[in-house]
Amino acid sequence: MAYVDDNKIHSHLDRLAYDEYREKTGLFGDYWMPAVASVAGLAALLSWNSTSGKPLHTGLWRAGLIVPACAAAGLWIRDSKREKNRLKWAGYRHYIELHPEDFPPYPRRVKVGETLAPWIPRRPGW
Questions:
Q1: What pLDDT does residue 72 have?
Q2: Measured on CA atoms in the order 25, 26, 30, 34, is the torsion positive or negative?
Q3: Rounded Cα gap, residues 44 and 75, in angstroms
Q4: Which residue among 1, 67, 72, 82 is least enclosed by CB atoms within 10 Å?
Q5: What are the pLDDT digits (tens) for 17-32?
């Protein structure tokens, strides 16, 4: 079977280039932060009622305010983290573009068979 180099990354800039596949999130990737924040807000409300000695359903109208507010906070946190990461990687990319001499191109990929030396078995007693 012939060796096929499917690796499209040949330099450090290729590694940092925009890739649609890497930008896609999983099934829950976009929604886990708002969901966790909403559940945490509801749990905080219920635990406040529990520690105050009140029934859990007391002031349940507050849940209608707290859960969407916490979901919005989760969306804001998610988007701010993504923007922070984009800026960080854009800075790395810009540095690599300004200083290409510090980042030589990747060497050619070597097969395992090319690294093995010829071997002659020598068995004592034969």
A1: 97
A2: negative
A3: 19
A4: 1
A5: 766 666 677 777 788 9
Q: What are phi and psi of 56, to 5 degrees?
A: -65, -30
Quote the tokens at residue 82.
């993504």
Which residue numbers in the chain have pLDDT < 70?
1-10, 18-23, 126
Q: Tell me the C-alpha distance between 90 and 83, whole Å.
A: 10
Structural Rg of the chain based on CA atoms: 28
pTM metric for this prediction: 0.67
How far is it, in rounded angstroms, from Cα 93 to Cα 17? 8
